[in-house]
Please model this.
Amino acid sequence: MSNKTPVIVYGAGISGRGAAQVLADRGQQVYLYNDAPAKVEPELEQTLTAAGGGVKIGQSAFYELLQGCKQVVLSPGIPCDSANVLAAEAKGLEVISEVELGYRLYGGHIAAITGTNGKTTTTTIVGEMLKRLPVPSAVGGNIGLALSKEVESLPQDGWLAAELSSFQLEKVNTFSPDIAVVLNLTPDHMERHYTMEAYGAAKQNIFRFQTAEQVTVLNYDDPIVRTWAAESKAQICYFSRHEQLENGIYMQNGDFVISWQGQRQTVCNISELHLFGGHNEENVLAAIACGFFAGVSISDMADVLRNFRSIEHRLEYVTTIDGVPYYNDSKATNTDSTIKALEAFKDGHIILLAGGHDKLTPLEPMMELIKEKTDALILLGAAKERFYEAAVKCGVANIVLADSFEDAVQKAYKLAHKPQVVLLSPACSSFDMFKNYPERGRCFKKLVLALEGGKSE
Model:
């Protein structure tokens, strides 16, 4: 990458600011561009200016920049079909994702994880496993700092655990991780990708440029993902909760088993872990695959798994009030994630809080399970009317509409009695009421903890 030719970093969020900083630190002339005014640290702005670039705002500024630049680095939040991106491509500029940039700047090892659900949990476990290797490691991508920022200090023999969303994978053209994992594929982000085919194609970019020496890890139990083996040039390692695999990672009598090239090893048993739910069993299987191919020992993988607790906002236990446990699953921003949360509670009797910013995904499969698993469905947010109609159509019996987030928690508190559980699992993003799902989860925990002390008569 020539330092003399200016680069545009499009989008001033965490990824964009990180990418701009890394490029400027390398002496690259870089312009950090945003459609609307954005908060940029004064130190970053000074660094950009010192390298001959700066911060630019507004479409007219973007079109001016196109005249002298050769490359645009996209932040994940910028749609590939936006007018500015199309204009850049029409002028012959190379448009790449921030992840592609990070990959080009880094010559070390990567274990990359994608999927509709489970990415953060799996990547976090893999990150803990990689810490056991005798080389530096880091976690980045859709979790933590920008990928280009995380790899800045990693040496060639280092390892990065990268959580990658479909948005981040849309504009890669050489990205080739040592290990590429696809956990699952269910409808999500239709407002961005429009079709499942386009969504799946973005996910496939995680392994599209791999070589025969590398490994693609696929969920054998997912009927779509399983077929993607034919699309990869890398070695295929399946994982499965239900099938014993000749070459793969699977479960047998609760044991997590590695079977590879004639060798069979047991890592640990599900009973030893603090995680619960079938979705977490899949996450553990995928993480074991990453650890195994990265060279982490069986004993180290087992030790990490035995000590791992659920990540914040993902089926996170909050407290128990009058015998009723409360769980924060704010990270469930789509219907499939909520389905997995409901399935984790084998005995049902759930008071479910759902709703938020509607992603317009199909609701019937989730509502059928809600009918089976819940004692009450409390709906809130912008999606509540559509959710209500779908729930009634599927025969969900006890539906309650809440006027606010606080009202929803209060209604759940008044309804819940032992042996029920209260579960926030919205099946929606949070943008109608909150900045993001962590803020929503923290609000839920704060409201629940304020209830402690027993029900008032």
